[in-house]
Design goal:
This is Ig-like domain-containing protein. Keywords: Signal. InterPro entries: SbsA_Ig. By secondary structure, this protein is mainly beta. 8% of the residues lie in helices and 43% in strands. The chain has five domains: 93 residues, Immunoglobulin-like (Sandwich); 102 residues, Immunoglobulin-like; 83 residues, Immunoglobulin-like, CATH 2.60.40.10; 95 residues, Immunoglobulin-like (Sandwich), CATH 2.60.40; 99 residues, Sandwich (Immunoglobulin-like). The protein contains two helices and 43 strands. Strands 10, 11, 12, 13, 14, 15, 16 and 17 form an eight-stranded mixed sheet that branches. A five-stranded mixed sheet has the order 26-35-33-29-30, with no helix packed on it. 22% of the residues are buried.
């Protein structure tokens, strides 16, 4: 006979055990869930692509472009958390208010509390530039403006155009375009302009909600982001005449340039390892003259080499025995600067000449042969200490010729042969400097470059103005390297002979002052940079080819 009470106790124990187990599972699951939830609430997501999308406006209250505006607070709602970036420099209000409004960010909302002293019948524009950004990645809403009018009319005129670099004719994105009323033009270079916008990726701009009046327009590419032109370290553009705005204006072309500094400065002075002095200036010196004031016995015993742009000078002097040097820098008869250089540890200076040759990639050009030069002024070269070996056999029947234009350059010519191994040896003392410096032994191994990769091209320019002076420059397709510069003859014909095969292009400088080079502008004197015209294509010089091209120049 079954014991019913025992069965009941056993059943109860089983149910109780199952319940306890189930409760334990639920408790564990709840703990894990709670822990996961807590972790998720504080841990930022990781991985994935970086957000590059600017936030979007979803609501403006009152609505943008409101008339008869009476509110004292503006609320702008976006689709994600936001913040203000560089508020003092990026955000502008035009016209200025008697008291500045208060900007406050609350998660996805921007609240702007306005003063109670707004002028009647006035259009106000709050321009955010790049100042309104998302919270995490700081992606800006470019050129967002909130506009309202206290009267029944909103200013609706606009000015649009394009900004490019004057020198390279390339579009300039995110350049600031400043508009200053004529009555306030004296603030240029002193105070920040309130009316501004940024160019887009195509270099285009548009200034909206403008009132009738006369304005001056500028473009600025600046370093410190204060909407003030701070001098020639920054790029500026302008149009010479003011804009009398009565209707929408379009097609404004602004050319950015760096001006010539009004104050001359020696920006760097260096005692080089080989004992010569390098002076670097903040602008070109038209008629440079440098006088050694100290030591006085160096006044006539020196050699000076100016850079091609005449904005730096290499000064070569005898061995330094004093602890300081003093130089006077002049432009013609006008003394520009006095430069003092401390000359300590002069015993460590290595006064020798380092030869420079045209041997590239262990190859020698059979047309141009070998050029030999040095940064240091060369007094003489001893041909007897120059050795040429052809398959290890010494050859003495080479020519050594000084360049007809550059007295610091020599040419070594020889009947180079294919399939021969060559070595050029410059023995110690082969080159002698102006102050007795000599070279250390120098060896170069090479073979003949047999590619014969040279061609001739003859250019004829059409559409030229006989009263205009032009300078033609042969450049690479990236506009970064200039291979040749020459004045365009009146017959409009230029030839490039024995040029390496490859892709080239042309730019033409409208040389207004006939000095043979491009000149930048001056915003204060209202002088524009000289115009540069670029060929809108590249052409190819083909090896062993002689070709002709006609280029039509548009004025």
């Amino acid at each position: 006979m079954r014991n019913i009470s025992t069965d009941k106790e056993s059943g109860l124990k089983h149910v109780k055990t199952a319940a306890i187990a189930k409760l334990a599972v639920l408790t564990c699951f709840s703990s894990v869930l709670l822990l996961t939830t807590r972790c998720a609430s504080i841990q930022a997501p990781t991985g994935g692509p970086k957000d590059s999308i600017a936030p979007t406006i979803v609501l403006e209250s009152p609505v943008n472009l409101s008339r008869n505006f009476k509110a004292n607070k503006i609320v702008i709602t976006l689709d994600e958390f936001i913040k203000l970036n560089n508020q003092a420099k990026e955000i502008s209000i035009t016209p200025e208010m008697d008291r500045a409004p208060i900007f406050k960010v609350k998660k996805k909302n921007l609240e702007i509390t306005l003063p109670d002293s707004l002028a009647e019948n006035t259009t106000y524009s709050i321009n955010f530039g790049k100042g309104l950004v998302d919270y995490n990645e700081s992606n800006p809403i470019l050129n967002y403006s909130y506009v309202f009018a206290t009267g029944d009319k909103i200013d609706s005129l606009s000015i649009s155009g394009n900004v490019k670099s004057a020198l390279k004719n390339e579009i300039e994105k995110e350049a600031k375009v400043l508009l200053i009323p004529i009555a306030q033009d004296s603030i240029f270079g002193k105070k920040k302009a309130n009316i501004f916008t940024l160019t887009d990726t195509a270099g285009n701009f548009k200034l909206n909600n403008l009132r009738e009046g006369s304005y001056r327009i500028y473009a600025l590419k600046e370093k410190n982001n204060d909407r003030i032109y701070n001098g020639t370290d920054e790029e500026i553009a302008f149009i010479k005449d003011s804009i009398n705005l009565k209707a929408d204006v379009s097609g404004i072309n602004l050319q950015l340039f760096k001006g010539v500094p009004t104050r001359f400065r020696t920006i760097d002075r260096t005692l080089e390892k080989d004992g010569h002095i390098l002076l670097t200036f903040n602008r070109r010196i038209e008629d440079p003259k440098i006088k050694v004031l100290q030591p006085s016995n160096f006044a006539t015993n020196n050699r000076i080499i100016y850079s091609a742009n005449q904005d730096s000078a290499h000064i070569f002097i005898p061995k330094i025995t004093t602890d300081s040097l003093k130089f006077e820098v002049s432009e013609g008869l006008n003394i520009l600067d006095t430069v003092l250089i401390k000359a300590s540890n002069t015993d460590k200076l290595e006064r020798f000449i380092k030869p420079l040759t045209s041997i590239k990639s262990s190859k020698v050009d059979k047309i141009k042969h070998i050029t030999l030069t040095a940064l240091t002024p060369i007094e003489s070269i001893d041909k007897g200490k120059i050795k040429i070996f052809e398959d290890s056999i010494s050859r003495t029947n080479f020519q050594l010729q000084i360049d007809s234009l550059d007295k610091n350059k020599y040419h070594i010519r020889y009947n180079w042969k294919d399939l021969k191994a060559y070595e050029l040896v410059l023995e110690e003392g082969a080159i002698k400097g102006y102050f007795g410096e000599i070279n250390k032994e120098d060896k170069s191994k090479f073979t003949l470059d047999k590619t014969n990769n040279y061609g001739d091209i003859y250019l004829t320019f059409a559409g030229i103005d006989s009263t205009q002076n032009y300078v033609v420059e042969l450049i690479d397709e990236k506009k970064e390297r200039v291979f040749n510069t020459q004045v365009l003859p009146k017959d409009g014909k230029i030839s490039y002979l024995k040029y390496p095969g490859g892709k080239y292009s042309i730019r033409v400088i409208f040389d207004e002052n006939n000095n043979g080079r491009w000149d930048t502008g001056d915003v204060y004197k209202k002088i524009q940079p000289e115009k540069i015209w670029y060929l809108d294509r590249v052409f190819t010089i083909r090896a062993n080819w002689e070709q002709q091209e006609t280029i039509t120049l548009s004025n």
